[in-house]
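Researcher: Re-running this chain for the archive, since the previous output was lost when a drive failed. Same request as before.
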Amino acid sequence: MQIVDGKEDYVWLNMEEPYFKTVIDTSKISIEDAEKLAKQAFSNSNIELIKNKNNSYSLRLNGVSNDGIEFEGWIDMDKWEVNSFYPIN
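Model: Regenerated structure tokens:
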């Protein structure tokens, strides 16, 4: 994923697998604080099943932290863990 004008954009490798990357500006927020806010947001999140270009599926989370920060995240369906998250507002 690359950031273009403040919006996320996916980088496709070999047009089969998406490449995900979480970018956090640690001069503004620590990794620990970002993780805490994301966990708050994902505790009551919407979950959406997304069909990828290679016909596999991903789960996208979308929720809001107690501080009102909206986060989006992606679940690795093999491990059932969040493998990427970022604020979207």
